[in-house]
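Take one record.
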Amino acid sequence: MKTLKLILVALAVSFATNVNAQTADELAEMAAEKKAQLSVTADEILNNYFENTGGIDNWNKIEGLKMYAKVNNGGMEIPIEITQLKNGKQMTVINFQGKEIKQGVFNGEVLWSTNFMTQKAEKSDAEATANFKLEANDFPDAFLNYKEKGYTVELLGKEDIEGTETYKIKLVKEPVTVDGIEEENVSFYFFDSENFVPLAVHSEIRQGQAKGMISEVTFSDYQEVGDIYMPFSMTQGIKGQGGQPITMDKIELNPVVDDKAFEFPEEEASKDDGDGNKN
């Protein structure tokens, strides 16, 4: 803990020194010069992205996605299924030790998950549900028709990501609420400068033990799914600390899904007598 505090202090001192070495005007001028050197705009990058991955028309035809994946957790592969629909309904099913555990199940109004300890369905609070509902607007891609969603984008410049030159785009979405306080909802995407597909996304973690740290999700191995291309390899974790590998085995477009699968199991919850026994 003491070592961590020393590192944080050193970083703070270093940051303060760098900021003081240059005035705000100088920093702004440098940023403006950097952007002026770019030969493309944010919208051109996004247009190229959608064109290279199937075209806007085909992206707009997507009504649902079902992803069959494996998460590598300490050398153990855990199968998961992720279902997302255009109407906002979502569900993740984890297959662990012979059990199906549902997480992030949303029927458009109610958000719920299975408690890992009790194996009972539990509803999320109003704040988490409202934030989840906002995120559902991203389907099937946050940048698709982003202006209609009320989002804004800004090209910040070029940045190297693991040896690859990328365009860094700032995406601002509708504000989220954290502990009753409305906060800006910002993410930074990094698009390959040659083929214009996203390679990574960074965003600040707002809650929990990792609050204030930067979340990093990486994307690779783009493969054809119907008429579009999607990443089949991902990592998710804290920036600079490595990530948890996620491998897609299969992605279905417009799957047939029973709406009942998204509903909170009210009857099962009411039959529980509080001791984990069924009446």
